[in-house]
């Protein structure tokens, strides 16, 4: 398929700037991919479509406050630093993006905090915008991370144009997030409240977790028309024996396996074994899924409404069927559904 086949006009007014008042009360569009039939529901009604012993798979990665603002030594120029990942714990080395990149050279020092309490030195240029920073800090690693994260703010996507607020620390995070490492939240999981998880348990619906540390590659613009030539950034993935056993048992019993989000679907498909089963995985994945694609494990998908030309939209179209999904997006636009990480949800059965 071609990149241009995933272009559509999205009015800015339909890009959600704030989450729904309650996590589980956003709108839910339910699509039957065999018939193309569409229903309009409230998210917490999702359990009406699942039975005892069906399995939901969540991503339990935890977003850290990755966006910092500092000042360059001597000139005092304001520099935005986006933390991508920690490269070396002992030496406080971090892989980062900086803006404006043209102002930063190897050897420059950057100062963070009102009192300039955190200092970093640029030690390497890795890409046009990427740098390696060495943070200069005397305390323990835990003290350093605590101090660093106090200076940072939640890395909301650029299409959320308002300033970051206090509510984002809680709402741009899944309630089950526990393994730190993501700079992009698995947005489909944001709709699940403690009350909804409890109601799932009461109904006998099982759930498990994989960990995929979602990175900025999810938002990187695709610059090739031929999708087979696009390369995804690698992301760290962990699939445990516990999850493998839970999913494979459900598959053997003919139960539903619901992937909650495109990151989960990518994780599952990176850990596929024979016969529509899963295997354990501990490593990196750069799997890029777009139509046509044969899914063998998940039987359903929960996802948000994504931006035009995005890799997430392509994966959803691969699962739900290109025509059905693009038609559903047309309906969503007409019906006033909200797009983006804080927007409404879609269930594809």
From TrEMBL:
Keywords recorded for this protein, A-Z: Cytoplasm, Queuosine biosynthesis, S-adenosyl-L-methionine, Transferase
InterPro entries on file: QueA, QueA_dom1, QueA_dom2, QueA_sf
Entry keyword Cytoplasm: yes
Catalyses which reaction(s): 7-aminomethyl-7-carbaguanosine(34) in tRNA + S-adenosyl-L-methionine = epoxyqueuosine(34) in tRNA + adenine + L-methionine + 2 H(+)
Cell location: Cytoplasm
Family: Belongs to the QueA family.
The protein's name: S-adenosylmethionine:tRNA ribosyltransferase-isomerase
Organism: Barnesiella viscericola DSM 18177
């Amino acid at each position: 398929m071609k990149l241009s086949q995933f272009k559509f006009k999205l009015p800015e007014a339909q890009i959600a700037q704030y989450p729904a008042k309650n996590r589980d009360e956003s709108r839910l569009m339910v699509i039957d991919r065999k018939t193309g039939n569409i229903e309009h529901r409230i998210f917490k009604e999702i359990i009406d479509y699942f039975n005892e012993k069906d399995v939901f798979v969540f991503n339990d990665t935890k977003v850290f406050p990755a966006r910092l603002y500092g000042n360059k030594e001597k000139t005092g120029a304001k520099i935005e630093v986006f933390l991508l990942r920690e490269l070396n714990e002992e030496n406080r080395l971090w892989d980062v993006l900086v803006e404006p990149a043209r102002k930063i050279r190897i050897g420059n020092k950057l100062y963070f905090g009102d009192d300039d309490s955190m200092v970093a030195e640029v030690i390497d240029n890795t890409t046009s915008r990427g740098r390696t920073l060495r943070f200069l800090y005397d305390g323990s690693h835990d003290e350093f991370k605590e101090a660093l994260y106090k200076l940072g703010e939640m890395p909301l996507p650029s299409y959320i144009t308002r300033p970051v607020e206090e509510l984002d620390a809680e709402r741009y995070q899944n309630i089950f997030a526990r393994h730190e490492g993501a700079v992009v939240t698995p947005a489909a999981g944001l709709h699940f409240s403690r009350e909804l998880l409890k109601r799932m348990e009461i109904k006998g619906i099982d759930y498990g977790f994989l960990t995929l540390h979602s990175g900025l590659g999810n938002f990187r613009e695709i610059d090739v028309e031929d999708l087979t030539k696009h390369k995804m950034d690698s992301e760290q993935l962990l699939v445990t024996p516990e999850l493998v056993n839970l999913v494979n048992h459900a598959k053997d019993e003919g139960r539903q396996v619901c992937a909650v989000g495109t990151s989960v679907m990518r994780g599952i498909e990176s850990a596929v074994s024979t016969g529509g089963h899963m295997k354990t995985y501990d490593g990196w994945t750069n799997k890029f899924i777009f139509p046509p694609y044969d899914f063998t494990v998940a039987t359903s998908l929960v996802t948000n409404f994504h931006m035009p030309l995005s890799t997430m939209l392509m994966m959803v179209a691969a699962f739900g069927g290109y025509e059905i999904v693009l038609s559903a997006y047309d309906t969503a636009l007409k019906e006033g559904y909200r797009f983006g990480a804080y927007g409404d949800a879609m269930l594809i059965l």
